[in-house]
Amino acid sequence: MNSVCSVILAGGEGTRMKSSKPKVMAQVLFKPMINWVISAAQGGGVEDICVVTGYRHEILEEHLDGKCATVFQSQRLGTGHAVMQAKDFIKEHIDGDVLILNGDAPLMDSETISNALQFHKESGNCATVISAKVANPFGYGRIQRSDDGLLQKIVEQKEATEEQKKIDEVNSGAFWFSAKALLSALDTLAENHTDASKEYYLTDAIEIILSKGGKAAAFTAKTADVVLGANDRAQLYELNEIARKQILVKHMKNGVSIPCIDGVIISPDAEIGADTQILPGTIIKGNCTIGKECEIGPNSLIENSVVHDGVELNSTQVYSSEVKAGAHIGPFVRIRPDCVVGENVRVGNFVELKNARIGEKTSVSHLSYIGDAEFGKNINVGCGCATVNFNGRDKNKTIVGDNAFIGCSTYLVAPVEVGENAFTAAGSVITEDVPKDALAIARSRQVVKEDWVNKVKPYRWQKKEETK
Ligand code: UD1
Ligand code: CA
């Protein structure tokens, strides 16, 4: 097997983002750019990854949390210098190939990476630069080819002649190098570096390799998107729009119906089953799995959650929870972390759930709060109920057995347990356990004062008399 690894360049500050975080932490569809690039490398079969950090490196190190190796570049002296920091890492793969990626080009994709590797190997190249034809090449390194189309060098914007500036094939910043050729080119790059004010350009490695008799070529990607980066928030918005539409179209092709894409944002890490319909204003963040034949939206937000088949979520927010098949949720429901909502459950309108398990076919239909609770199956929770789960210091648990009936405006003061088939009377404040099959009434009896209005003559009544 061919040993491959990747060095991702992520030292930059990105001044124009006006952010206190490293540039690669800027998000596209709620996913930091660095994670897009890591996913692309992994999808292209590269597991061993080293990220070169620089500006606010501690933020990036914490974010990566040991999932990738990192090296710190203390001074930003250019892309060539950044790769030099990863020399030891590259040496571990000395007989293999190294993929260099720009941490701020999130739309580089796995397919392009693996196709470029195949080309690199089949051509016996020491270096393969991934290029793309773009409408506006300004700012990018230009791919200079000979009359017979062979790669000669990469010319940076600053150094380009008027003639070279017209070249519309540009460097994406991604390369495949044989590890040996790269290390040797980096040494030459360092030796040649006499002008202290000049950056170490990784792009110069191409000319160096060619001058030593090594093979170098350009692999032209199918779309220009792979080169796109963002230097400010306006460009970041453009990347978001491109990625957003790509992902929506991918789901449509998989059988998901999105009749209107207004306000629909779906993270790249979401899976959605066929015949599910996504309606306007729906945002799906992070890692989510959504089943078949669901109706999601309008105006719903789902984050890091699993939603099974045939679920309806209308104007609902779901965070880090699971909603089982056939549940009808909403409108105006908030499902906070650690909930499991059972099959065919009915929740909402105006209901909040938190750290709650709700058994199948249970119904919590109107204006209720259920937190730190375990509710069984076939329970009916009336309008306006609450678990009183917090006493100012501790969170306590409420347990309700199967087939129970919780009357309207019941407060279940936790810790408390209501047994199977038991009833609570409307307006009850339940402070003690209710046994199975029992009825608990925990409110004062109604008092009726006959002819009270005539005796007391309340203000409202007086007003009516005056106007007569
Ligand atoms: C670079 C390429 C250019 C290519 C373009 C594609 C060079 C000299 N130029 O230019 O040919 O068309 O990318 O986007 O390589 N970085 C570090 N440390 C440094 C400098 C940069 O980690 O000292 C990182 C940056 O954070 C960034 C990446 O390397 O993620 C690219 O650097 P950047 O300064 O954006 O290079 P460009 O000028 O865009
Ligand atoms: Ca750049």
DSSP summary: helix tally: 11
Rg computed from alpha carbons, rounded to a whole number of angstroms: 31 Å
List unreliable stretches of 5+ residues. Answer: none
- Average pLDDT, rounded to a whole number, is 96
User: Strand-residue fraction?
Assistant: 25-35%
Small molecules in complex: uridine-diphosphate-N-acetylglucosamine, calcium ion
Shape: elongated
User: How many beta-strand elements?
Assistant: 38
Largest sheet: 14 strands, parallel
Return the structural class. Answer: alpha/beta
The percent range for helix content is 10-25%
Descriptive notes:
With 468 residues, the protein is of the alpha/beta class. It contains 11 helices and 38 strands. Strand 8 and strand 9 (151-155) form a beta hairpin. Helix 7 crosses helix 8 (204-211). The termini are far apart. The chain binds uridine-diphosphate-N-acetylglucosamine and calcium ion. Residues 104, 229 line the site of calcium ion (CA).
Summarize the structure.
By secondary structure, this protein is α/β, with parallel strands linked by helices. Helix 7 (179-192) packs across helix 8 (204-211).
From the structure above, extract its key features.
binds uridine-diphosphate-N-acetylglucosamine, alpha/beta, binds calcium ion, 11 helices, 468 residues
SSE topology:
Layout: E1 4-10, E2 27-28, E3 31-32, H1 33-43, E4 48-53, H2 57-64, E5 69-72, H3 79-84, H4 87-91, E6 97-102, H5 110-122, E7 127-133, E8 142-145, E9 151-155, H6 162-165, E10 169-178, H7 179-192, H8 204-211, E11 216-220, H9 233-253, E12 265-266, E13 270-272, E14 277-278, E15 283-285, E16 288-290, E17 295-296, E18 301-303, E19 306-307, E20 312-313, E21 316-319, E22 322-323, E23 328-329, E24 333-335, E25 340-341, E26 346-347, E27 351-358, E28 363-364, E29 368-375, E30 380-381, E31 386-388, E32 398-400, E33 405-406, E34 411-413, E35 416-418, E36 423-424, E37 429-430, E38 439-440, H10 452-456, H11 459-466
Parallel strand pairs: 1-4, 1-6, 4-5, 7-11, 12-15, 13-16, 14-17, 15-18, 16-19, 17-20, 18-21, 19-22, 20-23, 21-24, 22-25, 23-26, 24-27, 25-27, 26-28, 27-29, 28-30, 29-32, 30-33, 31-34, 32-35, 33-36, 34-37, 36-38
Antiparallel strand pairs: 2-3, 6-10, 7-10, 8-9
Calcium ion (CA) is lined by residues 104, 229.
